[in-house]
Amino acid sequence: MESVLTVESRLVEVLAAARRRSRVRTQQYEQLWEALSRMALGGKMIRPRLLIDAHEDLGGTAAQAAMDAAGAMQLLHIGLIIHDDVIDNDTVRRGEMNITGQFSSEAMLLGATSAAAQTWGISSSLLAGDLMLNEAQSLLARLELDAPRRLAVLDIYDETIAESVAGEQSDVWLSLHLDEADSGDVLTMIGCKTAAYSFEAPLAIAAVLAGSDASLVERLRAIGRRIGIVYQLRDDVLGVFGDEQETGKSVLGDLREGKETLLINTARAHPAWSQVAHLFGDRGLDAEGGLRLRQAIEESGARAYVESMIAEHCKTIAGLIAEAELPQALAGRLADLTSACSLRCA
User: Fold this and answer.
1) pLDDT at position 189, please?
2) Which of 154, 170, 300, 338 could form a disulfide with 270 if both were Cys (CB 3.0 to 4.6 A apart)?
């Protein structure tokens, strides 16, 4: 917990400096940074914590660089989820209005039409996401490290952005249902969209900062990729079958959106799906329709299949950890993280 609080303290400094710089521009630009500051702080801080802890477990001594890199991972996360909300047409995040919702509502209160206010909100979100991605890269570019390590960290960041964008685009494409996607397509999308920046990049950057050799960096990337897939597969199950009181997320959201998860991809092959296919992706889907879809998914065996995939990936991760010859503390930490991702209920 101490490392998380320290990262938050560092982010407070970084964001406060950005807000001070914003004051020489427009009032709206300053408001954008204020909204970003609220979004960037708090939460589980999974990515920053993973980077700092892995760096320490690997015997790293670049404490300040690790702290700044951890902060960059949090800013990267914020930038990507802001853009993701725009793509998904969401106006709420963590039970509160996101930047699109906030700026749209304020514009309407000031007299803007609904359409104009929506354009303002979406535009503000897109620009806010850009600012976060730029601020994250700026932190990494200023790390007080020797040039080879700093450039290696920036290369990881560049590749992570490319992976995340490819994964996000693939997610949207799969949801159009214009061609026949298989489970491999879905798993590849998950690996790019979620795993690359959430687990793979923090572990790889931690190893680079600690001075680990290239082979260990690659082994940690492989482990991080698999952990991220487990995390997202569990998230997809919770998105349809979870307890809304625990997850804080509607079990109708993914079904209304028509999100092509491994659950849905598997259910499509079963005769039961044809009876409910017209409900999937219906923005007006009600509780009864959601129940019918969940029953069809269960009947198809899709939920059981995804659970088996989670278990299979966990087994593979255990093998990768054993083969990687990691420090005992890090091996235990990654095993615990894998278990937490596979068993979480929120």
Assistant:
1) 97
2) 300
179-197 per-residue burial string, b: 16 or more CB within 10 A, e: under 16: eebeeebbbbbbbbbbbbb
Task: Give the span between the Cα atoms of 266 and 221, in whole angstroms.
Answer: 28
Residue spans of the chain under pLDDT 50: none
What SS3 class is residue 92?
A: strand
Q: Looking at the chain, which residues constitute the CATH 1.10.600.10 domain(s)? A: 1-42+63-144, 147-346
Q: Provide the 10 A C-beta neighbour count for residue 236.
A: 21
Report the sign of the C-alpha dihedral through residues 141, 143, 144, 150, in that order: negative
φ, ψ (nearest 5 deg) of residue 93? -145, 130
Task: Write the burial class of residue 272 (CB in 10 Å: 0-12 exposed, 13-18 middle, 19+ buried).
Answer: middle
The sign of the CA dihedral 81, 84, 86, 88 is: negative
* Assigned fold of 1-42+63-144: Farnesyl Diphosphate Synthase (1.10.600)
pLDDT of residue 5: 64
User: In CATH terms, is domain 147-346 a member of 3.90.1210.10?
Assistant: no
The confidence score (pLDDT) of residue 224 equals: 98
Please compute Rg for the chain using Cα positions.
21
Residue 34 has a pLDDT of 95
Model pLDDT for residues 110-169, shown as the tens digit of each residue: 999 999 999 999 999 999 999 999 999 999 999 999 999 999 999 999 999 999 999 999
**pTM of the predicted model, to two decimals?**
0.94
pLDDT reported for residue 177: 86
Spatial neighbors of 314 by CB under 8 A, at least 6 apart, are: 230, 338, 339, 342
Cβ contacts of 37-41, under 8 Å, gap ≥ 24: 39/78, 39/82, 39/93, 39/98, 39/99, 40/11, 40/15, 40/74, 40/75, 40/78, 40/132, 41/8, 41/11, 41/12, 41/15
d(CA 50, CA 174): 30
Residue type, 329: A
Question: How long a stretch of residues is the chain?
Answer: 346
